[in-house]
Amino acid sequence: MSESTYTIAQEAMVQQQLIRRGITDERVLAAMRRVPRHLFVPPVMVNEAYLDKPVPIGYQQTISQPYIVAHMTELLELPAQGEVKVLEIGTGLGYQAAILSYLVTQVYTVERITQLAKEARERIIELGLKNINMKVADGGYGWPDQAPYQAIIVTAAAPFVPPPLIDQLADGGVLLLPIGAKRQPQYLLRLRRHGDKIEEERLTPVAFVPFLGEHGWAE
What we know:
Layout: H1 3-19, H2 26-34, E1 55-58, E2 61-63, H3 66-75, E3 85-89, H4 95-101, E4 106-111, H5 114-126, E5 132-136, E6 149-154, H6 163-167, E7 169-179, E8 186-194, E9 197-206
Parallel strand pairs: 3-4, 3-6, 4-5, 6-7
Antiparallel strand pairs: 1-2, 7-8, 8-9
């Protein structure tokens, strides 16, 4: 596919998959138009990059379908002004981090699979996205050295909310993650901190790969 063909596919994705389904945040839509999704899938999968489906990226991981990426980003309710730091757990090949990079001051993203992190870093460098910080680690522990965060997003389904992530959430901040057992129904859970209190909202049904590690499922 040529670059012009990718551009047409990307705009069709925004119009037909995002706007038609109710994504209204103009900043989110602008970021989805700006990040070339086909660069964040394996080369053999580029023809499927803009389709309404998740795409496998190896290591039993996927890049979420475009609507879910936009929907979860919108649910974070990211401030448009001021210093905003976001923590992402589950970098994959870096697509969600790239979207966030156009909306916040700094993105901190944690990936447990070394090879995926290496490939994500290469893509991020290629696009010149200088406000994305990445490390390889068990995402359940977050990135405490850079806390607190105005938003935390998790891109794998956990059996429960990892306590370290709650601890790293700023007052007024939002933590969004899929919750659900393996091969069982999952849903998005949004937590919002109000001082020492945590408000919970059960939201959209979803289907994510399992969250692995100390605060997730055993490998």
